[in-house]
Design a protein that fits this description.
By secondary structure, the chain is of the alpha/beta class. It has six helices and 13 strands. The protein has one domain: 4-Layer Sandwich (Metallo-beta-lactamase, Chain A). The strands form two sheets. The protein has a seven-stranded mixed β-sheet, covered by helices on one side. Strands 8-9-10-11-12-13 form a six-stranded mixed β-sheet. α4 runs antiparallel to α5. The longest helix is centred in the middle third of the chain and has 15 residues. The chain binds zinc ion.
């Protein structure tokens, strides 16, 4: 698991966003401190470094915000639940998938990893399954048409962006940065061929939602390095 930190400025204060990338899927989990003993985690993978960091900063209360409920973005929820008091926020469409590991796109994800392994002799599929923890958790807060709420002294906004999955969303923190999940990357188009993905929803709803954000806003994608919104690939 690789760790990196980006500092962003918002309303005169600095927010440090730390990322923890899974070595097999390259899925990014993000962590931001939101107050004494509190933290925000976006899309938890089973990173030991993430768990260690949460212990270091004494974060006993963790808000888990999900961009969507694919297996690689939620398989760190189980180990988090064992260590912290968590509240999960996600779209209403994603919520039932947190209780049903067979509906989190695991088979499709594994097929993609094994195809890459066949091409270059890697061991992503086996590696991911070694670390994989099925998620069985209840979402505390859900939404249909977007949501704005405060987490400690920080503002979170959830903007629906269906296409990669029906419940995909973009999460904006303090109006300063956007966690784009698998809906926007810098180096490649979003994938809409997962089961229940929809290219037409992506084009009709996700792309306008993504384009409504400021071009200079910092984007933190579900996989790969951070970028500015204007540099994203807005196609599928
Ligand atoms: Zn995904």
């Amino acid at each position: 698991m690789h760790q990196a930190q980006v500092k962003i400025k918002s309303r005169g204060r600095i927010i440090a966003v730390e990322s923890f990338a899974d070595p097999y899927t390259l899925e990014n989990s993000y962590l931001a401190r939101t107050g004494p003993g509190r933290a925000l985690v976006i899309d938890p993978n089973p990173s030991q470094l993430l768990l260690r960091r949460l212990a270091e900063i004494g974060a006993g209360q963790v808000t888990v915000a999900l961009t969507h409920a694919h297996a690689d973005h939620i398989c760190g929820i189980a180990p988090l639940m064992e260590r912290c008091s968590i509240r999960i926020i996600c779209s209403r469409s994603c919520a039932p998938r947190l209780m049903a590991p067979s509906k989190t796109g695991l088979e499709f994800l594994l097929a993609m990893l094994r195809m890459q392994d066949m091409r270059d002799g890697g061991h992503r599929g086996d590696g991911f399954m070694r670390e994989y923890r099925p998620c069985r958790a209840r979402a505390m807060i859900t939404f249909d048409n977007g949501l704005s709420l405060n987490d400690g002294s920080h503002a979170l906004r959830f903007i629906p962006a269906p296409g990669h999955s029906p419940g995909s969303c973009v999460i904006v923190l303090d109006g300063a940065c956007a966690f784009t999940g698998d809906s926007l990357f810098r180096d490649c188009a979003a994938v809409t061929r997962f089961p229940r993905g929809s290219t037409s929803s992506y084009r009709a709803i996700a792309v306008p939602a993504l384009k409504s954000l400021p071009p200079c806003m910092q984007a933190f994608p579900g996989h790969g390095a951070p970028f500015l919104m204007r540099d994203g690939v807005f196609s599928s």
